[in-house]
Design brief:
The protein is mostly helical. The protein has one domain. The protein has 9 helices and no strands.
Length: about 230
């Protein structure tokens, strides 16, 4: 039970960390500005926040389940991962941790979002938030790709969970935007304070997570690769 809760909590935290990382944060700001247009109606603001989060959840569930199911449906690959997954997790966690600590950097602008699709989403009213959530969730950059493909997918494969963990990850990526939607609905001043606080939290959260990932990776390496105990 404790292991299950830890796994679910890790998936949620990875999603939240993804959403407040510098690259994804820019797309979330765009989503917030879209949601903010419904300032005159609190119901529209809440609906937009929920639909945006739903769009991200749908995308990550489809993508995550497709990858996990494909991996587990190949007998030889599935048996290989079941036998060596603990050994692979060590180096993977160390590499992701190094990405989070910016010890490894890749110059990339991400896949970006087509401006025509964004304008189309913005012209569809409240339901455009759902489309924005889907579009923005596919805008991977090095950090978000490392967190999703390098951390969540191995975790989902190990737990044989192609639906629950990607769904929780998706909720995590949309949760900060929904929090901002609430702030927009009640006070623009609260929005500014919340954004500044979130930026400060991201700086330390990413580095603490990076250190934890590296330490966990070293543990997996020492135990399952070098078999020191």
């Amino acid at each position: 039970m404790i292991e299950l809760l830890l796994t679910l909590g890790t998936a949620l935290w990875l999603g939240i960390l993804t959403s407040i990382s510098p690259c994804p944060l820019t797309t979330n700001i765009a989503a917030i500005s879209f949601i903010g247009r419904g300032l005159g109606s609190s119901r529209k603001v809440f609906a937009s926040g929920l639909l945006y989060t739903a769009g991200r959840v749908i995308t990550y569930v489809l993508l995550g389940s497709a990858v996990v199911t494909s991996v587990l449906s190949i007998p030889d690959l599935s048996m290989f991962l079941q036998q060596y997954m603990n050994k692979l997790l060590g180096p993977i966690l160390i590499l992701v941790g190094m990405f989070l600590l910016e010890l490894i950097t890749l110059k990339s602008r991400g896949w970006g979002v087509a401006s025509s699709l964004q304008r189309r989403a913005e012209s569809t009213g409240v339901w455009g938030a759902l489309l924005l959530g889907i579009i923005f969730s596919l805008s991977f950059c090095p950090v978000s790709a490392a967190l999703f493909f390098g951390s969540l997918i191995p975790l989902a494969v190990k737990a044989e969970s192609g639906l629950a963990l990607p769904a929780i990850y998706g909720i995590g990526t949309g949760f900060p935007v929904f929090v901002f939607a609430i702030a927009i609905a009640f006070s623009a001043k609260s929005l500014g304070k919340l954004f500044n606080r979130l930026t400060q939290i991201e700086f330390w959260a990413r580095r603490i997570t990076g250190v934890v990932f590296i330490l966990a990776g070293m543990y997996y390496c020492l135990r399952f690769i070098f078999r020191l105990w």
